[in-house]
Each structure stands twice: as C-alpha cells, then as structure tokens.
C-alpha cells in the first residue's frame, strides 16, 4: 500500500535532501510544497507533485489524503533575527495552523524538524533531551513554541507528533540556487572554489555537533517508517555524535579540497591566545539510537559533493 507523505519546504535546503532520499522509496508518494507557484518539478521526484503553499495559509487543502507530514517550512535564522514578530507568526503560529489542519484532515503522523539551538547558545557541555531548553535567539525561541504545540497534540492523542532537534546539518543542496551558502561548511567550500583560501572570522575553537544531510534524511525516513510504539515520547536529538571545533572542520575541508580540487587552500584565522580552549560539546543521540537508528554517512563524502557542486556553480567558466 502506498503511503502519501507531505513535505513542507520540500524544495528548501534540508527539505529537498529529505525529499530526494524518500523519492527512492517506491512505497511512498511525495507531495512537496513551495512558496513559488512556478517551481519546476525535478526529475528525481518521479510521480510526486509540487504544490504552491505558504506557511501563512491554512493547510487544509495540502493535507488531504496525507498519511505522514514532515514540516520544515520556516524562516531561517537570519530572517528571524531581523523580524522576531514575523518569526513567531511563521515558525510558531504557522506550525499550529498546519498542525490543526493536519488533525482535521486525518493525518496520522506529524514530524517536525526543530533545532538544537532550543537548548541555548553557545551549545556546550553534555546535552540530552533531559537538558532544560533556554533559547535566546528568535529562531530558536519560535522553534521551541512550535515544538510545544506538536508535542502537546501528541500527548493529547490527537496526532502522532515527533520532534527532531537537528544539530549542525551540512552538505550539498540539491542546486546552487538553494541559498544556504552562509552555513559554515558550505561557506568554506564556496570560499575554496571562489578565492582559493579558507578564512575564519574567529579562532575556530568553538565546538559544534555536525551531521551530514544524508544521515539527517535517513533519520526522517526512519521515523516515517517505524511503528508508533517505537516513537517513545516523540522528542529526539538528531546529531552526528561527532563534536568538532570549527577549525578542525575547516582543516577537513582543506584536506578534501586536495582530493577534489587538486589543491589544499591555506587557512586564515584569528590566532587563539596561549592555552585558550573551548568548552567541550556532547550532543547525545543515545535516545534516538534506542529506536534502531544508526549513523552511516561519511563527512568526507558530503564535503566532496559540496565542493563538486561549488566547482560547477562558482568556478571559472
């Protein structure tokens, strides 16, 4: 039996990678939303469809005949910082409107992609789902509001609500026009192709938990498929179980440049003070692993794909 899956923001940075992964599953029929009414259908979508929809709209029509809804449509961190009120309406109230529409349409499962930044900033020390959230950025605050609506609906038995708190996902977008080139790894890959060097605006000692978009997509597919009984209380950290400093990640990008581009770009950064160190980050996914999910993707493969896309899009022609 074919399962119909709706992905809001399905042509965005993370959403499109999730859609691309799910499109390989012949048992799924995909419906993606886009704010652009003229969005062209990618070849990999097969018999799936794209519908024009904005998170400010009611979601009744797009939820018809849907079994599982994956919600990613939201304002990014840059837009949220510029207009916190708009962020609350789109990320918070927009999620509530969609959640209510999903319940009315009989959608069985609602998967919400949140952010690790609900725990606060900077992310340091040991963080599990038991850690009390203290978001400070409008992006994180409004995602926490949306989380609460989803989990409340779950606890009231209205829908199978699942919240995934994504850490620093990185990897190649489906096309260069998907403008998320300000993200660290993506920015570094573009710098390498465009300038031949890697420039950090800090000493790079800050630690972040990184996860490939391939593993993030695999995790979402995992929650599309598993039984309700395996979903626990519905709240899971989604990270790469690999905290590295920004400088260490920059060094890895430089090493992959040697393989993919044929040269290792020099790294420029603010030199740390003697003995200066950053607090360690341990972003636990132990709870997620109890559901049967395991990480599989290699950082190197994701960086290589991003460098290749950058060479094609931003290299000399």
Labels describing this entry:
alpha/beta, 2 domains, seven-stranded parallel β-sheet, three-stranded mixed β-sheet, globular
Question: What do you see in this structure?
Answer:
The protein has helices spanning 13-22, 77-82, 84-105, 138-155, 184-195, 213-225, 246-260, 286-289, 299-314; strands spanning 3-8, 28-34, 49-52, 68-71, 109-115, 125-127, 160-166, 168-170, 198-199, 207-212, 235-238, 243-245, 267-268, 281-283. It is α/β, with parallel strands linked by helices and 317 residues long. Strands 3-2-1-4-5-7-11 form a seven-stranded parallel β-sheet, sandwiched between helices. α1 packs across α6 and α5 (184-195) packs across α9 (299-314).
Task: Lay out the secondary structure.
Layout: E1 3-8, H1 13-22, E2 28-34, E3 49-52, E4 68-71, H2 77-82, H3 84-105, E5 109-115, E6 125-127, H4 138-155, E7 160-166, E8 168-170, H5 184-195, E9 198-199, E10 207-212, H6 213-225, E11 235-238, E12 243-245, H7 246-260, E13 267-268, E14 281-283, H8 286-289, H9 299-314
Parallel strand pairs: 1-2, 1-4, 2-3, 4-5, 5-7, 6-14, 7-11, 8-10, 9-13
Antiparallel strand pairs: 10-12
Helix pairs in contact: 1-6, 3-4, 5-7, 5-9, 7-9
